[in-house]
Amino acid sequence: MDKNTEKKVLIIGTTGGEYSLAKKISELEEVSEVFVAPGNDAMKDFCTTVDIREGNTQELLEFALENGIDLTIATGELAIKNDIATVFHQHNLMIFAPTQASAEICISKSTGKKFMYKNRIPCAKFAIYDKASLAIDYVSNSNMPVVIKTDEHQEGNGVLVCNAFSVAKTYIEELFDRGEKKVIIEDYILGHEFSFYVITDGYHAIPIGSVANYKHELEGNGGHLTSGMGSFAPDYKVTNQIEKRILQQIIYPALNTLARQHTPYSGILGVDIVMNDMEQLFVIEFNPFLKSPDSEVVLALLNEDIYHLFQACVIGSFADDYVKIDIQDGTAISLVLNSKKMGAIINGLDNLDDDTQVAHLNTKKNNYLEYETQGSRALALTRKARVLSKAVADLYDEISVIDFEGMKYRRDIAKV
């Protein structure tokens, strides 16, 4: 290949989806090298990890300049919150990420809720409080259940559905005791929850996937809420007509307002939605990139050259170059394997079928080159098939060959 066409890519983030993103980009013909900051051991098989935290904007900038990075992709909220996009733009570096100002509706849930209310974007009734006593007084007069959230996304205990006042009171006190500055309290909407993602240059938006996700820890949507236990795409309940409504009622009202405020949103915009039995839509929150395990299923079905796609948004040719996004026919399902033990040796990875995609979320290699668990979310396994039932059956068959101490996963993902 002509050396002048070889591109270097830097991915910044620690959300769990960087593995799949880096793997997909590393397979592109025009990309010569992929760097991930900070990355993990498993990524070293196909890219170069960089020991720089995603919040260290200055070091990341210096690395990009010194190494001739052609395109940077910032996926982590901390990097986006630190406005890495503006910093890189000021140094004439191409970066695919929203600015801090445009992504504030994603980073701060209270800002996002106020934005929805002001722009008539459908959402549940909500209240925001910066004092525990006022929040407790509000829920004492609320119909149960209510949803209580921290202002910023957190791994684990940042959201709780409370079925009784005593539970809500205790949780509010716990949040403020641990230093939270404000809480968001929402009416609970019963319905089907899913995520919807678009890619946008700030003015033109094209869907890249609807994802049915499973956030509860236990089968039947029981237990604590998590960052995600599994997902599948496309979500068959999100019809073409509903997709059009999402664009008309949610996506474009948000993008148009941000553009009028001179803070156009460029990047991947995600929105979590609940649809009730009457097909009314209620926005839960915005997200500044693909979440894991949503990222695994969306990327698995994406046929586009991601480098060119992201570059088009950065240089301003997106609306001219893309009318629709090429997405494979069929379906993809992803399942997260959790571990209750740090340092548990993972067995069976070499026995997986070649068609099973593995994303390492929290693992590392020991001195014997064995993978060990390093956090509750250890692995994500993904399968594709023409029909969902086939993908589900194949995936659960594959899980039977994986084994590590304390392994736990949901057994009802996409099983209807």
Short description:
The chain has 416 residues and is of the alpha+beta class.
Q: Can you tag this structure with a few keywords?
A:
single chain; 416 residues; alpha+beta; Rossmann fold; Dna Ligase, domain 1; D-amino Acid Aminotransferase, Chain A, domain 1; 9-stranded antiparallel beta sheet; 5-stranded parallel beta sheet; 13 helices; 30% helix; globular
Number of strands: 20
The top-level CATH class of the largest domain is Alpha Beta
CATH superfamily of the largest domain: ATP-grasp fold, B domain
Structural class: alpha+beta
Rounded average pLDDT = 94
What's the total helix number?
13
Instruction: Give unreliable regions as ranges.
Output: none
Would you mind describing this structure in some detail?
It is a single chain. This protein has 416 residues and is of the alpha+beta class. The chain folds into four domains: 7-100, 3-Layer(aba) Sandwich (Rossmann fold); 125-187, Dna Ligase, domain 1 (2-Layer Sandwich); 190-321, D-amino Acid Aminotransferase, Chain A, domain 1; 331-408, Phosphoribosylglycinamide synthetase, C-terminal domain (Glycinamide Ribonucleotide Synthetase, Chain A, domain 4). Helices cover 30% and strands 29% of the residues. The strands form four sheets. Strands 10, 11, 12, 13, 14, 15, 16, 19 and 20 form a nine-stranded antiparallel beta sheet that branches. Strand 1, helix 1 (18-26) and strand 2 (31-38) form a beta-alpha-beta unit. Helix 5 packs across helix 6 (109-118). The protein is globular.
